[in-house]
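for the recovery benchmark. C-alpha cells below, seq after
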C-alpha cells in the first residue's frame, strides 16, 4: 500500500532489543507497531446481526428549518413544556417518520408531508393512555397528541412548509428487538483500501469520465468512504488509507449522518490489525435510526449548500459538510504561509545540510511524522527539512489561531446584534477561548491529514510509480544556477533548454518598433553595444558568437534598407563582413553589472505606445537586484509520469445525488492519468490543499513578480501601431502601492501589463531573496503566525523586508512622456 511496501515471502521474523517485531511478510505500515502510545488490548466483539437486531430500510428526514418550525408548533400548544421536552417529542416524531412511510416505489415523490407521521404518532399516544387521563403519564400523552394533531393540520394546509425528504437506505434498530445498549459494538466498516495517491488518482479519473460525458454535478456527492488513520503514536507515525465501501461493503456503509449521533466511530487495534468500529454512544430504542457524524469537509461552498442535513437534531448544522476553504480559519496562512513563504522554504530546504533542527524535529513528532519512518522513510534531506518547516508552521498556527477565532466570533456576534437592533432578543451562543482552542485543534487535524495525503502523493511521484525508483536519490525540485549558467540564460547566444536568452528576446521584441530612420540607427547602435556587454558578462569560448552578434546579422539587412540615406550607417560595412577570428576570454563583468547597464540603457530610451522601454527597464531592475536564480530540476524523479490506466465504473460516474444507487458497477471508461513535470513540487507547495488536479499549473500562476519576474515581452506589442495595455500611470501607481504595502503578494493584473509567460524559465526575485532570509531566521515556522502587533521586537526585526534600494530607484527614476 506504500512505495517500497511489497511483501517479501519467506523472510525471518526478528525481535529487536526494544521489543519491536520485524516481519518481512508485513512491511512497516499498516500493522500496529508499539511506539510511544499506550497499548490497550482490544477484543473482537460480535456485531449486531442484520435482519435480527438491526434492519436496512428506506429512511427519511427533515431539514433544520423544518425541525425548528415543528418545535415552534409544539410550543404553541404546550407553552408550559420546556425546550428539552419539546425536542424529545420532535425526536419521537422523526423516529415515527421512518415507520409511517416505509418502502416507497422508485417513482414515488422524493418529498412527503409530516402530516401522516404526526397523525400516526398522535394515535399511538392516545391509545397508550388506556383511558387513564387522570395520572401524569396519561395527561402528558394527551397533551403531546394534541400538539401532534395541530402539526398534522398545519402540514395538510401547507405541505411544502413541513416536508419530509427521502434519505435513501439507512439502518434502524429492529422493531421488537431489545434495542442497542450504550457501548455495544454495532458493526465494523469494510471496503476497498487505497493509499491517498491512488485514491486521488481515482477521483481525478472519475471527474475526467464525467467531463467526457458532458455531465454536471447534480446534488451533493455520495459518501461511501472513510479515512483509516494510523495514530500518531504508532512507531511508524501518522498516515492515512482511504476505505471505499461503494462496491464491497457491509451495512456500515448505509448508516446516515446526524449532527447529534447515537453511534460513534473508533479505531481499534484487534488481532494485529487496525479496524474501524462503530459503537453505540447511548441506548438506542427499537425503531430508532442508527447514525454517526460524518465529519466530512469540503472547500466548495456549492457542495456545502447542496449537502443539506436531514437529521432534524436540535444541534443540526444545516449541512453534513463542513466548509474548510483556504479562507476558513486561514488567519495564520494569510500571515506567514503564503505562496512566497512556501517557495522560500522549499528553496531553503534545498540548501540544507544535515538533519532538521531539534525544535523542528519535535514539531514533526507532534503531528506524528518521524524521520526515517512511515511517510518519511528513505526521504531525501531536502524533503525532511521542508516537512519540518511545515510542521513548525502547524505548531505556530495552533498557538496563534485560538485568539483569531475568538475575535472573529465576537466581531460576527457584534455585527448580528447591530443588524437586529437594540430590541432584539437574540443572544449569541456562548463561545470562549476554550471553544476556540478546540476549533484550532480541528484545523490542525485537517492540516495533519493534508500533509499525509501530500507525502503519499510525493512519495509515489518521486519513486516513479511502478518503476519504484529510489526516493532517497531524488534531488530538490528546483536547481540552483551558478552565475555563469544564469548569465547564459540572460545574455547568452545559444538557446538554453529550447528558450532564447533574455537579451535575445528583448532585441527581437524591439525590432518591429525600430525599422525606419533614426529608430533603426539607434536600435543598431544598441545591438552593437549589447554585443560587447554580453561578451563581457558571458565571456567567449571560441566556438560560438554571442547573442547580439547572431541577431545583428539577421536584422542588418532590414535596418540598412530602412536607413540607406544615413551616411553613418551606410558606410558601416564592417558589420556585413565575416567576423574576424577571436581568442577565447573569460568574463570581465558580473551579471549584476551587465543588468545595471541594460536597465540604464533601456531607461534612457524614449518609450512609445507600443514599445514601453521604461517598463522593460523596471523589470530588468528587478533582475539586477536578484541574488540567485533557480530552474525546475530536469531529474527523472521530477519528470512527467504516466500511470497505469484507471477503470471507472458506472456507479462512480453517477456518484452525485441518488445516481449511484441506481447504476451498475460495470466498467464504462479507462482513464490514463499523466502527471505533469513538477507535480511533486506543486503538491508540496500546496500541501495544505490537496484537491488541485494540476498543482504545478496552479503554483506557476501564483508566482508573478514574487517568485519569478514577468517576461519583457509584456512591455512590447507585436506592431508599432498597437499600444501596450494596462500600462498607464494609474496602473503604475497601483503597482507602486502594492510593492510598498504588500510586496509578498503576486502582482495583480490591474497593476501593469504582466503576463504569465516565463520564457527563460527562471525563478528568482529580490522579494524572494528577502523572504528566504526571513525563513532561515525562523519566519513562518518559529514565529509569524500572530497578528503583526503581537510580534515581539526581535520577531519584527527578523520579519521579511525588501531591500530599500529596489523601491528607491523605481520611485525616483525620471518619468518619460509616452509618444
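predicted aa per position
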Amino acid at each position: 500500500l506504500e512505495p517500497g511496501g511489497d511483501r517479501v515471502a519467506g523472510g525471518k521474523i526478528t525481535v529487536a532489543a526494544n521489543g519491536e517485531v520485524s516481519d518481512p511478510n508485513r512491511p512497516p505500515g499498516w500493522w500496529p507497531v508499539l511506539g510511544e502510545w499506550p497499548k490497550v488490548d482490544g477484543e473482537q466483539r460480535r456485531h449486531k446481526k442484520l435482519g435480527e437486531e438491526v434492519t436496512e430500510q428506506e429512511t427519511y428526514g427533515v431539514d433544520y428549518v423544518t425541525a425548528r418550525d415543528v418545535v415552534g408548533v409544539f410550543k404553541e400548544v404546550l407553552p408550559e413544556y420546556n425546550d428539552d421536552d419539546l425536542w424529545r417529542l420532535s425526536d419521537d416524531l422523526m423516529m415515527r417518520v421512518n415507520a409511517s412511510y416505509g418502502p416507497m416505489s422508485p417513482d414515488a415523490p422524493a418529498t412527503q408531508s409530516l402530516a401522516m407521521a404526526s397523525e400516526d404518532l398522535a394515535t399511538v399516544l392516545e391509545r397508550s393512555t388506556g383511558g387513564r387521563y387522570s395520572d401524569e403519564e396519561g395527561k402528558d400523552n394527551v397533551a403531546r397528541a394534541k400538539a401532534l394533531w395541530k402539526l398534522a393540520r398545519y402540514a395538510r394546509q401547507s405541505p411544502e412548509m413541513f416536508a419530509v425528504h427521502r434519505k435513501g437506505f439507512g439502518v434502524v434498530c429492529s422493531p421488537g428487538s431489545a434495542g442497542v445498549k450504550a457501548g455495544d459494538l454495532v458493526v465494523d466498516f469494510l471496503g476497498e483500501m487505497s493509499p491517498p495517491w491512488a485514491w486521488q488518482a481515482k477521483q481525478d479519473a472519475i471527474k475526467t469520465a464525467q467531463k467526457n460525458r458532458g455531465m454536471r454535478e447534480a446534488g451533493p456527492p455520495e459518501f461511501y468512504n472513510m479515512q483509516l488513520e494510523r495514530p500518531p503514536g504508532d512507531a511508524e507515525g501518522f498516515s492515512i488509507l482511504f476505505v471505499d465501501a461503494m462496491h464491497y461493503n457491509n451495512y456500515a456503509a448505509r448508516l446516515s449522518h446526524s449532527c447529534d449521533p447515537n453511534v460513534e466511530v473508533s479505531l481499534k487495534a484487534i488481532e494485529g490489525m487496525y479496524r474501524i468500529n462503530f459503537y453505540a454512544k447511548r441506548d438506542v430504542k427499537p425503531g430508532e435510526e442508527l447514525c454517526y457524524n460524518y465529519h466530512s469537509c469540503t472547500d466548495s461552498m456549492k457542495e456545502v449548500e447542496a449537502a443539506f442535513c436531514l437529521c432534524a437534531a436540535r444541534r443540526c448544522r444545516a449541512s453534513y459538510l463542513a466548509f474548510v476553504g483556504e479562507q476558513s480559519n486561514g488567519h495564520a496562512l494569510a500571515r506567514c504561509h503564503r505562496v512566497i513563504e512556501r517557495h522560500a522554504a522549499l528553496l531553503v530546504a534545498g540548501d540544507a545540510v544535515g538533519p532538521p533542527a531539534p525544535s523542528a524535529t519535535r514539531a514533526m513528532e507532534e503531528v506524528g511524522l518521524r524521520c526515517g519512518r512511515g511517510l518519511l522513510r528513505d526521504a531525501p534531506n531536502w524533503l525532511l527539512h521542508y516537512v519540518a518547516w511545515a510542521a513548525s508552521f502547524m505548531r505556530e498556527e495552533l498557538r496563534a489561531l485560538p485568539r483569531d477565532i475568538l475575535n472573529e466570533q465576537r466581531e460576527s456576534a457584534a455585527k448580528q446584534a447591530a443588524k437586529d437592533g437594540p430590541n432584539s432578543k437574540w443572544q449569541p451562543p456562548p463561545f470562549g477561548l476554550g471553544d476556540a482552542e478546540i476549533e484550532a485543534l480541528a484545523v490542525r487535524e485537517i492540516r495533519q491529514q493534508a500533509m499525509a495525503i501530500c507525502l503519499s502523493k510525493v512519495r509515489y511521484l518521486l519513486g516513479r510509480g511502478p518503476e519504484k525508483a529510489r526516493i532517497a536519490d531524488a534531488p530538490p525540485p528546483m536547481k540552483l544556477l551558478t552565475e555563469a549558467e544564469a548569465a547564459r540564460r540572460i545574455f547568452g547566444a545559444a538557446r538554453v533548454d529550447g528558450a532564447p536568452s533574455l537579451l535575445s528576446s528583448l532585441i527581437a521584441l524591439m525590432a518591429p518598433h525600430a525599422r525606419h530612420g533614426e529608430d533603426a540607427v539607434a536600435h543598431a547602435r544598441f545591438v552593437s553595444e549589447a554585443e560587447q556587454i554580453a561578451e563581457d558578462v558571458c565571456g567567449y569560448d571560441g566556438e560560438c558568437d554571442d547573442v547580439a552578434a547572431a541577431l545583428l546579422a539577421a536584422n542588418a539587412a532590414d535596418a540598412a534598407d530602412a536607413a540607406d540615406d544615413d551616411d553613418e550607417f551606410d558606410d558601416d560595412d564592417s558589420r556585413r563582413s565575416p567576423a574576424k577570428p577571436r581568442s577565447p576570454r573569460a568574463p570581465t563583468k558580473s551579471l549584476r553589472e551587465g543588468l545595471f547597464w541594460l536597465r540604464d540603457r533601456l531607461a534612457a530610451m524614449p518609450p512609445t505606445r507600443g514599445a514601453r522601454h521604461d517598463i522593460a527597464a523596471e523589470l530588468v531592475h528587478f533582475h539586477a537586484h536578484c541574488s540567485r536564480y533557480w530552474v525546475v530540476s530536469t531529474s527523472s524523479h521530477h519528470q512527467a509520469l504516466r500511470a497505469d490506466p484507471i477503470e471507472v465504473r458506472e456507479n462512480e460516474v453517477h456518484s452525485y445525488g441518488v445516481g449511484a444507487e441506481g447504476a451498475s458497477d460495470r466498467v464504462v471508461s479507462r482513464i490514463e492519468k499523466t502527471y505533469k513535470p513538477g507535480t511533486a513540487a506543486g503538491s508540496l507547495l500546496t500541501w495544505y490543499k490537496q484537491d488541485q488536479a494540476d498543482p504545478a499549473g496552479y503554483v506557476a500562476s501564483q508566482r508573478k513578480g514574487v517568485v519569478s519576474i514577468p517576461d519583457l515581452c509584456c512591455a512590447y506589442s507585436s506592431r508599432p501601431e498597437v499600444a501596450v495595455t494596462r500600462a498607464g500611470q494609474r496602473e503604475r501607481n497601483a503597482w507602486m502601492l502594492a510593492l510598498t504595502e504588500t510586496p509578498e503578494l503576486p502582482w495583480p493584473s490591474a497593476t501593469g501589463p504582466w503576463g504569465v509567460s516565463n520564457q527563460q524559465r527562471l525563478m528568482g526575485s529580490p522579494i524572494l531573496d528577502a523572504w528566504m532570509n526571513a525563513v532561515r531566521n525562523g519566519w513562518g515556522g518559529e514565529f509569524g503566525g500572530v497578528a503583526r502587533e503581537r510580534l515581539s521586537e526581535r520577531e519584527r526585526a527578523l520579519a521579511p523586508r525588501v531591500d530599500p534600494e529596489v523601491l528607491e530607484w523605481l520611485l525616483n527614476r525620471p518619468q518619460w512622456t509616452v509618444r
